[in-house]
Design goal:
By secondary structure, the chain is an all-alpha fold. The protein is built from four helices and no strands. The chain has helices at residues 2-43, 56-120, 126-157, 169-185. The longest helix has 65 residues, at 56-120.
């Protein structure tokens, strides 16, 4: 009887081992198919069709993953289309800014030249010279803004260089006061610059 029990136990163990190996093999195939499908969906942005046979839960999981991959593929396609539209829009904007900036520089150069000539003309009164200097300084600032717009276009196109240099803050503030003062005087408002002692340049 003991030998019969041992034989039966060995047979049962062999059957359990065989079933476990089959189950592990199916699980491995299922895992590989699932991993390959998700990888294909994420990397290639393609819809996948996962029709699995077996329990109802596995079939439902396959159907849900198939629907999810279809939604993901549609959303990715829309996002890529939108990105291409944005890229084209940015390119048109940069071209527009470059053209407008170029057109603005031509009359601005004339303003800068004429205001410089008036400022240096000995026949003009001190008040006229001061006004011409304000026009010239404001024109230079406007030219600087236009250059910044062109720099922005170059940055977006990846064709720009940067230079680092020292800026005198007190001189910058004095120029700002000089440019803005006529606008304040026109409204009878006094504008003055007061710099504290010991401030760094």
């Amino acid at each position: 009887i003991s030998w019969r029990v041992i034989v039966i136990m060995l047979v049962l163990v062999a059957i359990i081992y065989y079933l476990a190996r089959r189950f592990a093999h199916k699980a491995e195939l299922f895992d590989k198919e699932l991993t390959d499908g998700i990888t294909k969906m994420l990397e290639e942005n393609e819809a996948i069709d996962m029709k699995w046979h077996g329990p109802v839960e596995i079939q439902e999981l396959g159907e849900k993953l198939s629907r999810l991959s279809e939604v993901h593929a549609r959303n990715t396609e829309r996002a890529l289309h939108h990105a291409h539209e944005l890229e084209a829009s940015n390119r048109y904007k940069s071209e527009f800014l470059a053209n407008v900036s170029h057109e603005l520089r031509t009359p601005l150069n004339s303003i800068l030249l004429l205001s410089k000539l008036i400022k240096e003309d000995p026949v003009c009164s001190p008040e006229q010279i001061e006004k011409a200097a304000v026009i010239n300084a404001a024109g230079k600032d406007l030219k600087s803004l236009i250059d910044n717009i062109l720099d922005l276009s170059r940055i977006e196109a990846g064709k720009t260089t940067f230079s680092v240099h020292h800026v005198d803050i007190s001189e910058l503030l004095e120029e700002l006061i000089f440019i803005m003062k006529p606008q304040f005087e026109a409204k009878n408002i006094e504008l003055a610059l007061a710099l504290g002692e010991g401030l760094p340049e």
